[in-house]
Write a structure and sequence with these properties.
heterodimer, A: alpha/beta, Rossmann fold, Alpha-Beta Plaits, 2 domains, six-stranded mixed β-sheet, four-stranded antiparallel β-sheet, 11 helices, about 35% helix, elongated, B: alpha/beta, abc type-2 transporter like fold, four-stranded mixed β-sheet, 4 strands
């Protein structure tokens, strides 16, 4: 039943490399037409999971179904129905934009008019019209990323797997890229995307947070905000935020202040605690004792980054 | 198996070859350049070997002999010395490769027909110059003795019924002038065609290094289609060389091409299939280009030099090596090229080697396909 309605189902996926467990009992469901984010630091098992979902890597144990197809038994059956953009720029640098698109189009079985039509669409989407004969190594990061996306959707896949598609791309290009993803989702494509940028999590419909191969939290951004926090977030301006973090953490471990966590947040300090508003004076005093001037203090809505840090500390 | 998929890979590989100048050079020009360079380097005739002479006889006859022996381009008189110690010093310094010692009584021994008291000392660290000198001196000495004999006979008034005391006539079949080049070039072709195999190993490792292989594996292109698609362009490139190299051999080195070119072309295609299969095996097992390069030298070029009978006859190898040589495409192809070029033999004789090559190709491709799957995990 679930397999029919869900685009992707993974059950207790495990991948061990010798002694090392890269992916540990990972289970999740991706619904049709959503952007599902797989969030976690480098080395947390994101790429390994995506490779198993595509049938490129055999799991040690567990199950994967994509579009109702058991991937372990019939990896070939999903190839033409899914698109994949692997972690590193995966087009041929020495070939031109057009040669790359033509190769991937033909690889996915397109020919003649169908191929030309799709290539035109991809060029238009990537904004590379008129630059077909440029070699891809001459393109900047943002263009390449859009071209790689264009190549991945030539065959109009039902599901798109994107492994850190925006790594190393400037913020403006990242935003453009997400715009493209929204367009695709509007056309009915399901997107599975991994990232280690916390701010990109807000763009996803649902998320799973991965740490050391395990899913430690999942849900929509709002759900995760509500479940993940014990307490509220107080934002503090101070004369020396880096030192302020150290001082407050010391106060926490020595039990002088009942704090959940203390994090540096840009040039500000975020303190999370139950009833944090009433602790403002105590915090100011603690800082003053170490000759740190505290400025404005305000209770704020937690960002997903606050939430994730709270999860990962647990 | 989809022809469209294979075609996609073939076209992409050809685009790579045409785009990337270094691949283009490596694949199309290097074989030709190698061929020309190596055939000169490996077959330079030995000339102007420096020698020292220690003449204890100091007679007109001995001086005459030394003059005759150093008259041509072969041996150069580097020094006249007066003791064995001097010879040793010159040999140690590497200034001479060969020394001749003419014993006292050199002239009288010849006159009384007791022979020629001559000692040749050679530098054993350079056996080729030494062997050449021994041969050359021996030959000149015979000539000298014959002349001396005739002169003596003439002086005695005998002019008829004298035959030369030594009359040896050597004829080398198929290669009448016995230039080493003629023998080398057909063998060299088999090595030169190792370059496409190296390239195919490198392209596979390159795709693995750059992550494009992973992207490829996610497409509907199957492993067999990918391997075949990678192989075909390099078979074509190899066949271009198969046409260029015999032309070079004929025009530049005046080596006769006595066989049937179609037969040679067909058997070369089979050889390329086998050697490229080997290249694919290397590419499948090696994760990086340097590793693929190193293994290619070990498996393609090194045995090509030493184990395929180009330089050393296989018959003189130990049993184990001979078996190994059978598994190397170059062994069979060296026999084919030599046979087609010089005696001009045809398929009736060469077919077993063609069959061996085809079999090796199938085995290599099978191994590549089998392990390619596993290497991606």
């Amino acid at each position: 039943m679930i397999a029919e309605r869900s685009t992707i189902v993974t059950e207790n996926l495990v991948k061990r490399f010798g002694e090392f467990t890269a992916v540990d009992e990972v289970s999740f469901i991706v619904h049709p037409g959503e952007i599902f984010g797989f969030l976690g630091p480098n080395g947390s098992g994101k790429t390994t999971t995506i490779r198993m979902m595509l049938g490129l890597l055999t799991p040690t144990s567990g199950n994967v179904e994509v579009l109702g197809v058991p991937v372990l038994e019939q990896p070939e059956a999903i190839r033409s129905r899914v698109g994949y953009m692997s972690q590193h720029f995966s087009l041929y640098n020495d070939l031109t934009v057009l040669q790359n698109l033509r190769f991937y189009g033909t690889a996915y079985g397109l020919s003649n008019d169908g191929l030309n039509q799709q290539i035109d669409r991809a060029l238009q989407m990537a904004g590379l019209e008129g630059r077909e004969s440029i070699r891809t190594h001459e393109l900047s990061g943002g263009w390449r990323q859009r071209l790689a996306l264009g190549a991945a959707i030539l065959h109009e896949p039902e599901v798109l797997f994107l492994d850190e598609p925006t790594a190393g791309v400037d913020p403006l290009s990242r935003r453009d890229f997400w715009e493209l993803l929204y367009q695709l989702v509007a056309d009915g494509v399901t997107v599975f995307v991994t990232t280690h940028y916390m701010d990109e999590a807000e763009h996803c419909h649902r998320l799973a947070l991965l740490q050391r191969g395990q899913i430690i939290a999942s849900g929509s951004p709002d759900e995760m905000r509500n479940q993940g926090m014990h307490g509220q977030v107080l934002e503090i301006e101070s004369s020396d935020s880096a030192r302020a973090v150290k001082v407050l953490r010391a106060a926490k471990t020595e039990g002088r202040l009942p704090l959940e966590s203390v994090e540096l947040y840009g040039s500000l300090v975020h303190v999370i605690a139950e009833g944090v508003e009433s602790l403002q004076d105590a915090l100011a005093l603690e800082l003053k004792r170490s000759e740190i001037e505290s400025g404005r203090m305000a209770v704020i809505e937690p960002s997903l980054e606050d939430v994730f840090i709270a999860y990962m500390r647990d | 198996m989809s022809l469209r998929h294979i075609f996609a890979v073939v076209r992409k590989e050809i685009q790579h070859i045409l785009r990337d100048r270094s691949t283009f050079v490596l694949v199309l020009l290097a074989p030709t350049a190698m061929m020309v360079l190596m055939s000169y380097a490996l077959t330079v005739d030995i000339q102007h070997v420096p020698i020292a002479v220690l003449d204890y006889d100091r007679s007109p006859t001995s001086r005459n002999f030394v003059q005759q022996i150093t008259a041509g381009d072969d041996l150069d008189l580097y020094a006249q010395v007066s003791s064995m110690e001097e010879i040793e010093v010159l040999l140690m310094r590497g200034e001479i490769k060969v020394a001749l010692v003419l014993a006292p009584g050199f002239a009288s021994d010849i006159r009384s027909m007791r022979g020629m008291p001559l000692q040749i000392i050679i530098d054993g660290t350079e056996p080729q110059s030494g062997a050449f000198a021994v041969e050359h001196v021996g030959w000149r000495a015979e000539e000298f003795l014959n002349q001396a004999l005739s002169a003596q006979m003439g002086a005695l008034g005998v002019t008829q019924g004298i035959s030369q005391p030594i009359d040896l006539r050597v004829r080398a079949w198929y290669n009448p002038s016995l230039k080493p080049r003629v023998d080398m070039i057909p063998g060299l072709i088999s090595m030169v065609l190792g370059f496409p195999a190296l390239s195919v190993a490198l392209t596979l490792a390159h795709e693995r290094e750059h992550g494009t292989l992973e992207q490829l594996m996610a497409t509907p292109i199957t492993r067999t289609e990918l391997l075949l698609g990678k192989m075909i362009p390099y078979v074509l490139v190899g066949l271009v060389n198969v046409i260029i190299i015999p032309l070079l051999a004929m025009l530049l080195f005046r080596i006769p091409f006595n066989g049937n070119f179609i037969v040679f072309f067909l058997l070369s295609a089979v050889f390329l299939f086998a050697i490229l299969g080997m290249g694919l095996v290397i590419g499948v097992f090696m994760k990086t280009q340097p590793a693929a390069l190193a293994l290619s030298f070990l498996l393609i070029f090194f045995p090509g030099f030493f184990m395929t009978g180009i330089f050393f006859p296989i018959a003189s190898m130990p049993e184990v090596m001979r078996l190994e040589a059978l598994g190397l495409p170059g062994t069979h192809y060296a026999i084919i090229t030599r046979g087609v070029f010089l005696p001009g033999v045809g398929l009736d004789v060469l077919w077993p080697y063609g069959v061996m090559l085809a079999g090796l190709g199938v085995i290599f491709l099978g191994i590549a396909g089998l392990f390619f799957r596993k290497r991606l995990g």
